[in-house]
Amino acid sequence: MPRRGEVQVVVVGSANFDVVVKAARLPQEGESLLASNLKFFPGGKGANQAVGAARLGAKITFIGSVGQDVIGDFLMQGLEANSIDTTWVKRDPQRSTGTAFIMLFPNGNNCITVDPGANMSLTPADVERAETLIAKADALSTVLEVPPEVVEAALRLARKAGKLTVLDAGPPRNCPTEILKLADIVSPNETELASLTGEEVSGHVSAREAAGKLLELGVKTVVLKLGSDGSMLVTGKTSKHFPACRVNVVDPTAAGDAFTAALTVQLASGAKIETAIRYANQAGALAVTKLGAQPSLPTHEEVEAFAARLAKNL
Length: 314
Ligand code: RIB
Prior knowledge:
CATH topology: UDP-N-acetylmuramoyl-L-alanine:D-glutamate ligase
Number of domains: 1
Low-confidence stretches: none
Number of helices: 11
Strand content: 15-25%
Strand order of the largest sheet: 4-1-9-10-11-12-13-14
Distance between the termini: 33 Å
Number of strands: 14
Radius of gyration: 18 Å
Mean pLDDT: 97
Bound molecules: alpha-D-ribofuranose
CATH superfamily: Ribokinase
């Protein structure tokens, strides 16, 4: 098994420009509502995972697509500033860079509307071109914010090469069983689990039951992200809840991406699944303490320092 600093992960997924405002509530249809604190951040579930994993010490190659526009330039610079190999990122002259419109509410929740734009230009051929790279990596992680056939091609190639495959099942989407089964780990949040299974998910019992449905379909390991309630591991043999770490919530955006990135890096460096989930819980918790998607993703040193504080009950 490679050591943490030597772990190589290929992330296949989305990159978005996040336009963030604070609002008192959701506007009603036809209503203009004043918001405040407009900010712009690099985001996108795939790119967030790539940056998250890089900050945790892994060597990352990102396969994605952004527009041939200034926003695309901005996202590329952000990836490169985190030492991510962007050789395989496509620039689409026809479609704008994916953009997410994010509202943050006083209760600490958010809501997100995404125009995927150039993310939808990514094709299986773009991934297949990187077959040799995938065969050399330790793990591949991907998300449902790019076309499903791309997710399938990525997981299939990594599986063929015997690599760890992780599917972050966000955003909420139906996903063919054949694709889900290609992932060693499927990691949805409650809403995403509901979309995957058609079940209502609220609380541990229904979450465990819905995760059980994924197992019946042939998925081997489900790692559920339960937000402020922590996470849950569900396999054919066991089901275990991992409580959340208490933190001051500033912005929940990208907490799930930080979690998946941490889980992937830990598992790829040989950690046991329970250890990996505890670490991922800590990375996810730290991500909610800062504003913005990628600016909030913690480094390995920050996670270690946080874990030490938790151990001392500080
Ligand atoms: O998971 C958070 C991400 O979802 C944001 O960065 C936004 O771009 C959306 O894709």
